[in-house]
């Protein structure tokens, strides 16, 4: 990977003496920055006009609707001030991640002050006019949302749904040795599961080859309307907690007494210098070849919630209370009732000292800022398209399989295993810029051939004799933490900072991250709709395997193909943010994966099997199918001499395809003529108004016919197909088979049998449909088909009895079909 | 609540001297039990016949398919042995929760040995025949699944998807002061988010009024194919971690050297006695009125993975390796290759000592067992229907609202606030048997009137001056931990042990628990299908509010109504395990909630608003609508003198209903005749083969007509309605409006506007549809409607411009309609 320009690493104070870091001028500047950021933040929440309070505020300057969350803001602004000062003095490549998403105004204020906001939004210049526009645009239609998200330069994390900021930070520093990531974590967020798990990710970080994470816990004591747990346990317990997870806690307390601001700033500068020195020494030790896992500093930043807002309003506590979580004077009319108090509060930030007369920022405020790309709002890693390098792709031709097209079905391969081989080569070609994550399932998902090219990164003890630890190493491109949340979060952090990757999971347990994936999609949707200045980032790729149909051994808890519905709900606005693939052989998976690996600003979810299954298509055919998303498999179709057919057999997913091809074999022997269609890209079935790359109605009719029944065997729940085909021409011709949420620990055939997905159920259903149609048209059914259907069902029951009796399947029930060239 | 019979609390050793607990006889029995359970566990995995190895095994006795997970089993069996001994000696009311779900054979072995299995499955008697049947039934079609789940007596937790065992345990002990819950937690599970968060739930437990949880971390070192993090950090770090979370860690190590079994047992008995003494003293202190939060013991149980299986197979490490995770001799043919080694392994458990000749268990094995309901497999709390008491319901009449039916829309109320009042009374009427959980959102969701009856339970520091802590108390029926996982998990544990409750969440963030709710539904599905002996448990109730349409202030991250699709995928088999309600006023919510609170063996998910909105229906009307799930609102319909109408206006959800009623007002003025239908229970739209309580096709046609267009305004994504109506008669007449995944921080009208859900878009669309139809039939559109539509759209744009300009809405855009009696 091209190192970002800022790759200067981890100096000890850059020729700066400690006292210079906290010179009187610097302390005054820190305080001016803090007041300025607090003022601009409050301004965004309250002010519609006159943002400099010129001639004093008038009630007309107050917004009609007050939206925002004050509670977390002053603490964030304090930290931003000091991080700016720190970057200025040390030139350290630093990204900041704001966990308390509702602190949006603080993030906007930061980017306004450091100038990065005006660079991407030229209509918001750094003067009075710009300030007024910023204040007005905040939480305003077509303006800045209330969360710190993709709209604001410098942000790579939106914290609306809490829990993911620390995993994003760890993802950001992987393979980025010069980067310091500072996630600011609310004490509320600390109570969530994903956040609680992510502390342990430090066990994977290699301080030599990765960057470092400095978590700051913003312990302001209260959530929306409750105290936070971490704020109420003893200092000893809290310290033990962090020590126990491999951190060295530093607690900084301020704002609870009369200590003057400059002295608080002075103390904080000293502490931050101490912590940075420790980070430098961790880096230095790692560079010198020490391989002990360090204890990483964590900063507990304890302040009152709502710090610096009115202490009491109408006799109720606000500063240092959950009551300051949102807007201290809650509504415009309430603000007006307390107009004088409100004005006094605003004036307490001394706008006259922080702005020049023309509304530009006083030198006092900006003096502590770093310059250029070192600015928080301009760090290249936070607009990762700027630093992203394209992958060097291995040729698929070296990995493709060559099925005998005169007898398809003979050659078998595990799709995920084959993709693992390809991905191994990809890893080799693209060191330090492609990562694989898995929740302890890489091998179980048969993706383990990637270990030919890399190791599992692991920075805890490794057994010397390697009897169990052969694939572990302190460096490697794979991380296996038993947490789907961490896999998703680390990969998000990695691609959001300009790199590439994939995570691999059991299909059922991807749903654990359903809401997390949704949030990443929302980020991408916002990019496409509203944020034109960000450069494209790599796709987020998820390979879901160990899927529902082959979890017969693990049982019902492991059988759930439903994540697809969560995905389909997103991106129905022609934005192509989601791609959903069901490759049913190894070549299709290769073609899909190559496309997915190179895509940008989207999420690719690929459902593929790990079992040895037939390779149906050549790579060229696979590419052809990928191009349109759907393909008639003419070699599997069986039409009469004139190209006529009785029904369409359609499939989506590997097991449904195998069973339908086997059913086709039965039907062919019954003289049924059919067309065979395979769906690879599920989104190709979406309606055109949702997805303009989907099949047109004409193409849809061409593929599925205007008048023939369509027997559609689908990998997941039938409802998914119903929602997709509703409104399509002739969709009432469809008969959909899918997973019916029936399962247990049982045999493969029993799984198929209970969900009506076995070849016999499919063939018998086809005959039943055809006969019913025939009865309508010709007033009689075809006796041959009636008898055949009964025989098929009888045979099916015989095979089922075998299964029940023996506990395994008669091979005739599940053998792979093969299709000879006509 | 009726206390379970076992409510005898927390004695110090019951007249038993320590040495008696570990008498030679007891130690020998512990070891015999352990060998017996290991033998029966391995038997389930490997043996098809001859489970006593009579005359030695023959290759024919090996199962053809070997399924299961050995790695976790011997440790579980060891713990079961000792917990049995402990219960026998102390008579302590104890439930055990098996986190490593794959340890199913251990759970079955336990219930077989303690006799509870044979009591519920009389065809599996405690003899050779029963043993053979058990072995055969394991992981066999129609038999016992491989997870420890609802099929096995004594289980209240299925661990297939990891992360929830500790929250289930905490949920189980709430308001159950005599209960000791022992969750056994795999070191893999410790890496998941939900588990990592659940340790902190001890901050809510009141040791006087609740039971206690003794977590045992089963530290066997390896996951599927990786070491676990907790096993590789230092003892000091691990201890600090647990201390930091308020626990006192005890580490027990065994199995890594040549120490003989009896000495291991002796050490463990001593440790367990010490830990129990500590638990008793915690209980005793709490009883005496000490209110300091205790440090709860946690047991770290460190053993080799696969303990007692062959150390090496073909030169590869198995015992103490991830390789023993599944089946040590992986396939039947492999087992046969190593047949002698396999037989020697089985023989190492000395079956001749643990079974009598007739296959009954030797006294040596059973001597350590408790009797009757004290048995792990028979604890009443683990078959909670046995102890569950019905709720005493307050009358809804005291809480219902009485809208003026001659002018509907005038009376407004917040539905969740009203339900809060009702629930407060319910809490008062049913102390210690109904609980409310929330992720720090009870007040935000306007459910705070429950605090009239109870407090938020909080067992950390409470501020004495109560400026911030007025609603907190060491006892209370509400828990607010900022983790949706914990809310769901605690409620599951609470209802699974016989009590009742609800959790309340922002709609969008319920999706965080999508997979968790799915797993609970799977438990219920298995109950309905396969487990007839369990008595019904209370419904799991989820109130989702702060919903998509009114999250305009919190922004796009907070806007996601998609959880409903995950729910609809479940229970499509006529099992009525899921109920999905969209009550659109306070009376409907009251009626729904009362039905939900009293339902059993199901999950009720209720989507309801928190804003002040009109009360459309009287309580009687609400009950009528609830009975069928759908109702024509005749007072809102506007038909001609003959009852004819031009179109059907259908709604589901509060905001769509308000907007459609407002659209109806516009349409009425244009001379359009319509019928108005409201859908309360979304499942009423399911196809009959999925849900036999849904509308029949005849009822569906009666409601929505055979030939009129249906304008359907739906709360969530349109795809959900498409999947439901596909295949219904005349479903192509439907035109569905719903959330289109468009949003931001903006005004309410802008939210409606961008998603085409505002009254003007609805009315204009209706006119467009009617005119298109008319053009088809009469070859001309109705000019009046064409003009009216243009005027409506022009007015809409005018209102929209107001919003963009002012940042708030013209009241005309969003005012509540009112409907006068004709």
From TrEMBL, chains A, B:
Q: Which cofactor does it need?
A: thiamine diphosphate
Which UniProt keyword terms apply here?
Answer: Lyase, Thiamine pyrophosphate
The chain positions of domain Xylulose 5-phosphate/Fructose 6-phosphate phosphoketolase N-terminal read 24-386
On the tree of life, the source organism's domain of life is Bacteria
**One GO molecular function term?**
magnesium ion binding
Q: Could you give a single Gene Ontology term from the biological process aspect?
A: carbohydrate metabolic process
Annotated membrane-spanning segments are: none
Q: Which residues form the Xylulose 5-phosphate/Fructose 6-phosphate phosphoketolase C-terminal domain?
A: 610-814
The family classification in the record reads: Belongs to the XFP family.
Q: What is this protein called?
A: D-xylulose 5-phosphate/D-fructose 6-phosphate phosphoketolase
Specify the species: Fannyhessea vaginae DSM 15829
Name the gene: xfp
């Amino acid at each position: 990977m091209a190192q970002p320009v800022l790759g200067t690493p981890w100096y000890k104070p850059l020729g700066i003496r400690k006292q210079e870091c906290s010179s009187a001028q610097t302390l005054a500047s820190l305080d001016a920055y803090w007041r300025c950021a607090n003022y601009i933040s409050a301004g965004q929440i309250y002010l519609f006009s006159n943002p400099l309070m010129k001639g004093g505020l008038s009630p007309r300057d107050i917004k009609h609707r007050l939206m925002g969350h004050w509670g977390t803001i002053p603490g964030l602004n304090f930290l931003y001030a000091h991080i700016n000062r720190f970057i200025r003095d040390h030139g350290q490549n630093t990204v900041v991640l704001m966990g308390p998403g509702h602190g949006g105004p603080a993030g906007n204020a930061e980017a306004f002050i450091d100038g990065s906001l005006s660079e991407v939004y030229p209509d918001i210049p750094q003067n009075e006019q710009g300030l007024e526009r910023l204040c007005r645009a905040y939480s305003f239609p077509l303006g800045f949302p209330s969360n710190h998200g993709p709209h604001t330069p410098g942000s790579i994390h939106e914290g609306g749904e809490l829990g993911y900021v620390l995993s994003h930070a760890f993802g950001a520093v992987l393979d980025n040795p010069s980067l310091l990531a500072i996630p600011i974590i609310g004490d509320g967020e600390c109570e969530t599961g994903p956040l609680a798990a992510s502390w342990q990710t430090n066990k994977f970080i290699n301080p030599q080859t990765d960057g470092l994470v400095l978590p700051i816990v913003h312990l302001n004591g209260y959530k929306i309307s409750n105290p936070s747990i971490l704020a109420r346990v003893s200092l000893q317990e809290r310290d033990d907690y962090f020590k126990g997870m491999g951190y060295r806690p530093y607690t900084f307390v301020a704002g609870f007494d009369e200590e003057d601001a400059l002295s608080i700033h002075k103390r904080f500068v000293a502490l931050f210098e101490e912590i940075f020195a420790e980070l430098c020494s961790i880096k230095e030790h790692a560079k010198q070849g020490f391989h002990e896992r360090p204890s990483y500093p964590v900063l507990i930043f304890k302040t009152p919630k709502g710090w610096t807002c009115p202490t009491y309003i109408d006799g109720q506590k606000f500063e240092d209370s959950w009551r300051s979580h949102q807007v201290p004077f809650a509504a415009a009319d309430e603000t007006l009732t307390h107009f004088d108090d409100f004005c006094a509060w605003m004036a307490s930030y001394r706008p006259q000292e922080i702005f020049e007369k023309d509304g530009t920022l006083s030198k006092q405020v900006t003096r502590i800022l770093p310059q250029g790309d070192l600015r928080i709002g301009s760090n290249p890693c936070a607009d990762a398209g700027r630093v992203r390098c394209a992958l060097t792709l291995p040729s698929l031709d070296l990995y493709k399989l060559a099925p005998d097209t005169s007898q398809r079905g003979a050659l078998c391969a595990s799709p995920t295993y084959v993709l693992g081989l390809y991905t191994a080569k990809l890893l080799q070609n693209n060191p330090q810029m492609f990562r694989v994550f898995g929740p302890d399932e890489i091998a179980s998902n048969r993706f383990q051939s990637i270990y030919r090219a890399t190791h599992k990164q692991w920075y805890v003890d490794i057994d010397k004799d390697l009897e169990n630890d052969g694939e572990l190493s302190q460096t490697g491109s794979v991380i296996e933490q038993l947490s789907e949340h961490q896999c998703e979060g680390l990969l998000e952090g990695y691609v959001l900072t300009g790199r590439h990757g994939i995570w691999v999971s059991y299909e059922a347990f991807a749903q654990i991250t359903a809401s997390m994936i949704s949030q990443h999609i929302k980020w991408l949707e916002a990019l496409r709709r509203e944020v034109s200045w960000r450069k494209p980032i790599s796709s987020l790729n998820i390979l879901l395997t160990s899927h529902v149909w082959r979890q017969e051994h693990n049982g019902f808890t492991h059988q759930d193909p439903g994540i697809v519905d969560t995905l389909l709900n997103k991106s129905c606005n022609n934005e192509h943010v989601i791609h959903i693939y069901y490759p049913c052989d190894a070549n299709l998976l290769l073609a899909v994966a190559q496309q997915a690996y190179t895509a940008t600003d989207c999420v690719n979810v690929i459902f593929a099997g790990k079992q040895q299954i037939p390779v149906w298509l050549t790579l060229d055919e696979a590419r052809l199918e990928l191009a349109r998303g759907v393909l008639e498999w003419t070699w599997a179709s069986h039409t009469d001499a004139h190209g006529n057919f009785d029904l369409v057999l359609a499939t989506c997913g590997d097991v449904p395809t195998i069973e339908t091809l086997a059913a086709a074999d039965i039907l062919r022997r019954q003289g049924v003529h059919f067309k065979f269609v395979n769906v690879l890209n599920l989104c190709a079935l979406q309606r055109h108004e949702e997805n303009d790359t989907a099949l047109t109605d004409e193409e849809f009719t061409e593929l599925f016919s205007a008048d023939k029944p369509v027997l559609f065997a689908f990998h997941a729940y039938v409802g998914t197909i119903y929602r997709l085909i509703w409104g399509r021409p002739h969709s009432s011709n469809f008969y959909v088979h899918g997973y019916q949420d029936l399962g247990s620990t049982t045999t493969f055939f029993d799984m198929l049998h209970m969900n009506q997905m076995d070849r016999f159920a499919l063939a018998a259903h086809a005959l039943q449909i055809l006969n019913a149609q025939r009865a309508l048209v010709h007033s009689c059914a075809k006796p041959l088909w009636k008898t055949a259907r009964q025989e098929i069902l009888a045979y099916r029951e015989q095979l089922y009895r075998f299964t029940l009796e023996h506990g395994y399947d008669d091979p005739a029930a599940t053998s792979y079909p093969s299709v000879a060239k006509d």
